[in-house]
Amino acid sequence: MASGDASRCYPGLLAGFTRSILFVPPGIAVVRDVVACVGERHVEWLMHYAGSVRSEGDASIIENQGVRLTVTPFLPERASGWRVSDVTRMSSYFDEEFHKTFTPSIRYRRFSPFRAAESFELLFGLRIGGDAAGDWAFTGGAGDWQLEVPDRGIVILPDEDGLLVQ
What we know:
- The chain is built from no helices and 16 strands.
- The chain is an all-beta fold and 166 residues long.
- It has one domain (2-45, 52-77, 112-165): Beta-galactosidase, Chain A, domain 5 (Distorted Sandwich), CATH 2.70.98.
- The strands form 4 sheets. A 7-stranded antiparallel beta sheet has the order 1-2-3-12-7-6-5, with no helix packed on it. Strands 13-14-15-16 form a 4-stranded antiparallel beta sheet, with no helix packed on it. It has a 3-stranded antiparallel beta sheet with strand order 4-11-8, with no helix packed on it.
């Protein structure tokens, strides 16, 4: 597991932003973001990808060169409203070294709750080759939840701003 505070990347906007990433070999990652805002804010979780993306229930399925990645959002809870957007951004710049204009593009899927708030907990499960319906068993809500990975026999729990594995 790796965990770090990125709040200084958003001066004046965030009082805290801890991201924890748990790797469960082979092919599983869990990402938890605990965000404390300065006042009420809207937040977005951005997932950059290569290949194609589609929705299957709450999950996003990314396919690229015969490999499938299933991304399942668990928090924030959908009951209070949720937005998923697919975005392509293009930039254009003249490169002095090559004496030509480049126009690269990036694509990402943006996840965000409808409502602004002073704090957020975002939790996502990523699994290579996963099945959107049966890979996880999630119970609970923000700050008090349990995420089971049934085929690995492990349970993941919140631990302050990080993650704990049982």
